[in-house]
Design goal:
The complex is a heterodimer of chains A (about 450) and B (about 450). Chain A has about 450 residues and is an alpha/beta fold. Chain A has 15 helices and 20 strands. Chain A has a seven-stranded mixed beta sheet, sandwiched between helices. A five-stranded antiparallel beta sheet of chain A has the order 16-20-19-18-17, covered by helices on one side. Chain A has a four-stranded mixed beta sheet with strand order 9-8-10-11, sandwiched between helices. In chain A, helix 1 packs across helix 4 and helix 9 runs parallel beside helix 10. Chain A is globular and about 70 Å long. The two termini of chain A are about 15 Å apart. In chain B, helix 1 crosses helix 4, helix 3 crosses helix 5 and helix 8 packs parallel to helix 9. The chains are: A alpha/beta (about 450), B alpha/beta (about 450). Chains A and B meet through helix 1 and helix 2 of A and helix 1 and helix 2 of B.
């Protein structure tokens, strides 16, 4: 029986279910550890639209003020917008209160450094140690600062940065018909403004009320965006965009109402970026080989990292990459705008590509190298993970292996990747091959070996 | 003993950052959120101390997490919080204030429905929940909501205006030392709205600086207000602590009036008008109370020192039986004000008394028998306090004895009280006598306490 981990305190921060698990006290302590780590000074906070957001905001404010920090509260704000604002105001760091694509009962603290980027792995473990040691900075009365609100600067800043890297006039001239599903998330109002007013598209938007709960599963995927697909067909839209609650991930629907594979969205963004920007590409191990083919066409390299935005960002920074992302989870990271996963950059790059090429979304996708992908989840018992992985590796002695994150086995034109979930005793199995038959055969073979 | 943090029946208090941390605040507020019945909002207010910014955030988070709606009044006095709890029919409330402690301290004070301090049974339950650490946190879709209200001071002033004829007080010239606390905000507003002419000093409210120790004592009142009284031709001077629940007084000649006298003065003013004839006071306050009570057919009930004992005593009587309750620190509760320690209300009552009688403060005081009180603190070194008290008791077999808080023995013209402080490791020795100082009695007591301790 798979048991969900209702609270996770780790190098990525704290995430858990509101109620008995992610308590206000825990939020405050973690924030105080954070404040101790970054030092007395300004810290930026913002949140997505979860019902627990205000409560957790006050808890985090308490911890930060107790450490002697000054808090700038951006209110409900997309995570990438918060990240850009942090570096803009030269803050010591920032905290986004969001469990991203997780269900509404979850919330989490996402932590950022003074540049608005994830901390690297060494910094993250240092911060976690500090939290566990509970030796926090304790401000005295005359050192305690206050909470200031800034609800307006950040969206304009973000939009301005994005516009510098696309041909906004070309996009406006096309008067694209765009459908949007904002999942009632932090980006709801900003997305309507960005697409409707700034880029002058003819916008049909659903679920853009930040005061309401998520109307669908929060993660934007083909199976959760049926309403968006229907809207695209009804409105005759050129493209449909589906966001997650904190506006970092994006899924895309083509003009026929077909929701794209997130790997293909990344591939289109990579294609657009490499024609305009020097540098290599960084993606995680589970991302499609399509990226390798596109990079090869442009004479660029592809670096692979363990799954997780922080890992991708850390590598991107090291190799000064042109673009990066995580295919399956719908994330595009374009450092020219900011080194963070950003749905606004993704929307702009895609509209720019459509304007530049004059092609429809389905035509653009048809021009991508074709691969077939399959994925699934396999429950396992604790204590059996090592044996399962080893067994799988030994069954395929002809494959090239990569043990960086779980097990990836590579052959010419196909691969499989197995890794354990961070939150549940589940194995995530992903395969890719040139044809659907090959992919199915590889998937079935691996599935049988993992479950027997 | 770490004096920087105290968790007790009166709540949580400590030096912020040294003893009192965000964790204490959040846990205590969560315990209170668990203790309160769900369904009605919780009222919150704070004094201007900067640490109140941090504590406010933690309290709000914990209360919301427990499913309570929170109404935050911002920077207001403790009596304003208590007033709002009743006005808004709230489940209870929290005042973030260390009152008369120095600026680096802060505290949480807890109130039940109608704004009354928790009694010992209730605060015991709160402490148990805090120590058990088992809090009732609600699920994600049942969390509370925060409302910020900026009108609480006005509503409180409306309440005062219903009891006191504020216009009638206008001709009086009154100087007030606000000690950079919340009384400045209230009195400024009272000047604006009711045309009162309170002259305010130390009225800057920035939460960082205080002109002097925020304690309400005759000596500070004399030091701060004394030099101003005659040049300004003032009728009375008042001194408040940070959250305006206590008051001290200076007379028209610039002399500090002993904080012991505030309660008897108010008793003298209120007893003739009051249906209730009972005065609740602690064992350490002046015997002048009995003299004043006797003039108006009142009776004094002596209870152990500390707010808790007074609150417990109050809850055993019907409100209409009581005329007044308080202590010799300038903290007085009146039934018209829901038995809240309210310095502003006490000031208005004294001003009304001055108008009613057409007398100066010193003339009013001259009418009372003179009592001379001597107080000392002896460091507590021996654990054998019961033996000490027994020895003293045997030494004075002829007086009336009360052992409910240390030892108090009284005679018709004098009394003494020896007790161990609840807040510091000291033994307090107090002796009072009519007409002359009880020097001999006092020296004997000190001798005994020092030798046996």
């Amino acid at each position: 029986m798979a048991r969900e981990h209702l609270l996770k305190v780790g190098v990525s921060g704290v995430r858990g279910v509101i109620g008995g698990f992610l308590t206000p006290g825990l939020g405050a302590s973690f924030a105080q550890a954070f404040g101790t780590y970054v030092g007395k000074g300004r810290v930026v906070i913002g949140r997505d639209t979860r019902t627990s957001g205000p409560m957790l905001t006050h808890a985090v404010n308490c911890g930060l003020l107790a450490a002697g920090c000054e808090v700038i509260d951006l209110g409900v704000m997309p995570t990438p917008t918060i990240q850009m604002y942090i570096s803009h105001v030269k803050a010591r760091g920032g905290i986004a209160l969001t469990a991203s694509h997780n269900p509404p009962e979850y919330n989490a603290l996402k932590l950022f450094n003074r540049e608005g980027l994830f901390f690297n792995q060494y910094e993250r473990s240092e911060l976690l140690d500090l939290f566990h040691q509970s030796q926090f900075a304790q401000a005295r009365n005359d050192e305690i600062r206050s909470v200031k609100q800034d609800l307006t600067t950040a969206p304009a800043l973000h939009i301005d940065r994005v516009l510098r890297h696309v041909d906004a006039d070309a996009i406006r001239r096309r008067r694209f018909r765009v459908a949007l599903d904002g999942v009632n998330g932090a980006g709801s109002e900003m997305s309507v403004h960005f697409l409707g007013t700034v880029l002058q598209t003819q916008l049909d938007a659903i679920s853009v009320d930040p005061t309401r709960v998520f109307p669908r599963i929060a993660e934007p995927r083909p199976d959760t965006l049926t309403e968006l697909a229907a809207l695209v067909r009804r409105a005759g839209a050129d493209v449909g965009f589906g966001q997650d609650p904190d506006g970092d991930r994006l899924a895309v629907c083509d003009e026929t109402g077909q929701v794209l594979d997130n790997d293909d969205v990344l591939a289109l963004a990579v294609k657009r970026a490499l024609t305009h920007t020097p540098g290599d590409v960084v993606v995680n191990l589970t991302t499609s080989a399509t990226i390798d083919d596109i990079a090869a066409q442009h004479g660029r390299k592809v670096y692979r990292t363990p799954v997780g935005e922080a890992n991708v960002v850390e590598m991107m920074q090291a190799v000064k990459a042109a673009i990066g992302g995580e295919g399956s989870s719908g994330g595009i990271i374009y450092p020219a705008v900011h080194l963070c996963r950003d749905s606004y950059t993704a929307m702009a790059l895609l509209l720019d590509l459509m304007a530049e090429t004059g092609k429809t979304v389905s035509e653009l996708v048809a021009g991508l190298p074709r691969y077939s992908r399959l994925s699934g989840k396999v429950p396992f018992e604790h204590g059996r993970l090592g044996t399962l992985m080893q067994g799988l590796e030994e069954s395929f002695p002809d494959a090239q292996t990569n043990r960086m994150d779980g097990l990836k086995l590579l052959w010419e034109g196909r691969w499989l990747h197995v890794r354990s979930s961070n939150t549940e005793p589940l194995l995530r199995l992903a395969v890719e091959a040139r044809t659907a038959e090959q992919a199915q055969a590889l998937f079935d073979d691996a599935w049988r070996r993992l479950t027997s | 003993m770490n004096a920087a943090l105290r968790i007790s029946h009166v709540g949580l208090r400590g030096i912020v950052g040294q003893g009192l941390t965000a964790t204490h605040v959040m846990d205590f507020a969560a315990a209170f959120g668990t203790f309160l019945e769900p369904g009605r909002p919780v009222v919150l207010g704070r004094d201007p101390r900067l640490s109140g910014n941090m504590i406010r955030e933690g309290v709000v988070a914990s209360l919301l997490a427990c499913g309570h709606d929170v109404i935050d009044l911002g920077i207001v006095s403790t009596p304003v919080v208590q007033h709002a709890i009743q006005r808004l029919d709230a489940a209870g409330g929290i005042a973030i204030s260390a009152s008369h402690n120095t600026i680096d301290w802060n505290a949480l004070r807890f109130f039940g429905p109608s704004g009354i301090y928790l009694n010992t049974a209730e605060s015991g339950e709160l402490l148990d929940i805090y120590h058990l650490h088992r809090f009732r946190f609600e699920e994600w879709n049942r969390l509370g909501k925060l409302t910020v209200s900026g009108t609480a001071i006005d509503a409180y002033l409306d309440g005062l205006a219903r009891v006191f004829d504020l216009e009638r007080l206008r001709p009086l010239r009154v100087v007030v030392d606000c000690c950079n606390g919340t009384s400045a905000l209230i009195l400024r507003r009272m000047n604006e709205r009711f045309g009162c002419g309170f002259i305010l000093i130390n009225e800057r409210v920035d939460g960082r600086t205080v002109a002097h120790t925020p304690n309400t004592s005759a000596s500070i009142a004399e030091l701060q207000l004394g030099p101003l009284m005659q040049p300004l031709q003032a009728d009375a001077g008042f001194l408040f602590d940070m959250d305006a629940d206590r008051v001290a007084l200076a007379d028209e000649q610039g002399r500090g009036v002993s904080e012991e006298l505030v309660l008897p003065m108010l008793a003298d003013h209120l007893l003739p008008k009051s249906e209730g004839k009972l005065i609740i006071a602690n064992l350490s306050s002046t015997a002048l109370l009995e003299d004043v009570a006797a003039r108006h057919g009142g009776r004094v009930l002596r209870v152990p020192v500390g707010r808790q004992a007074a609150i417990d005593a109050l809850s055993t009587y019907r409100p209409e039986q009581i005329a007044l309750a308080g202590e010799g620190t300038g903290a007085v509760m009146m039934p018209q004000f829901r038995f809240v320690y309210d310095g502003i209300a006490s000031m208005l009552a004294i001003l009304t008394m001055i108008r009613d009688r057409g007398q100066t403060v010193s003339q009013i005081l001259a009418d009372y028998p003179s009592h001379h009180i001597l107080k000392a603190e002896v460091p507590l070194t021996s654990p054998n306090i019961p033996a000490l008290l027994m020895e003293l008791q045997e030494l004075f077999p002829d007086g009336i004895m009360d052992r409910s808080d240390g030892l108090r023995i009284s005679w018709p013209d004098r009394w003494f009280h020896v007790r161990v402080s609840q807040t510091e490791p000291i033994i307090r020795v107090i002796a009072e006598q009519r007409d002359s100082e009880p020097r001999e009695l006092f020296e004997t007591l000190l001798d005994r306490v020092r030798s046996l301790n």
